[in-house]
Amino acid sequence: MKIVKKILIVLLIALVIIQFYRPEKNNPEYREVTAFITDTKPSAEVTKILENKCYDCHSNKTEYPWYAEIAPVSYWLDDHIQDGIKHFNVSAWDTYSVKKKDHKLDELIEEVEEGKMPLDSYTWLHGTITNQEKEALIKWATKARENYKL
Fold it and tell me: Is it the case that residue 72 has pLDDT exceeding 70?
């Protein structure tokens, strides 16, 4: 029993210590999504879906929930956000080539159709995306891709 008590004490101390070492937040100076909105022209419905279900991980406009301040959750969230912006960052839309824009919208369609986005771990806390929202996103992205066909 003594060994279990010592392990628990060490774990508690480690948990307290990691609270002082948090990952850097995703709030660079360039937080705009204006170029993306201007180029792709989403409807008000799609804009709302993007704001509520996509921008936290796929833009520099991350709105952090209260629990993002608590380690180890802060590290887990940071990993998701960094991975999300690595794959698709709407705040960097104006830096993408025409070919890359088309590809990113194609990936968006594919991920939404296959139910891979949003991630299950995101929907546990933020709610799922409805079939109507999926259809609206796919229809919008398909139409937006027409601007980037070579």
Answer: yes
Q: Can you read off the two tokens belonging to residue 112?
A: 């939404």
Compute, in degrees rounded to 10, the torsion defined by CA atoms 40, 44, 47, 53.
-140
Cβ(67)–Cβ(22) under 8 Å? no
**Packing angle of the helix pair 98-113, 131-145 (nearest 10 deg):** 160
Matching residue, tokens 């799609």: 46
| DSSP track, 1-68 | -HHHHHHHHHHHHHHHHHTTS-PPPS--S----HHHHHHH---HHHHHHIIIIIHHHHSS-----GGG
Write the single-letter amino acid at 111.
E
Model pTM above 0.90? no
* d(C-alpha 32, C-alpha 42), whole Å: 15
In this structure, the number of other CB atoms found within 10 A of the CB of residue 1 comes to 5
pLDDT tens for each residue of 74-93: 888 888 889 999 999 999 99
Residue 45 has pLDDT above 90, yes or no: yes
* pLDDT per position as a tens digit, 121-143: 777 777 788 999 999 999 999 99
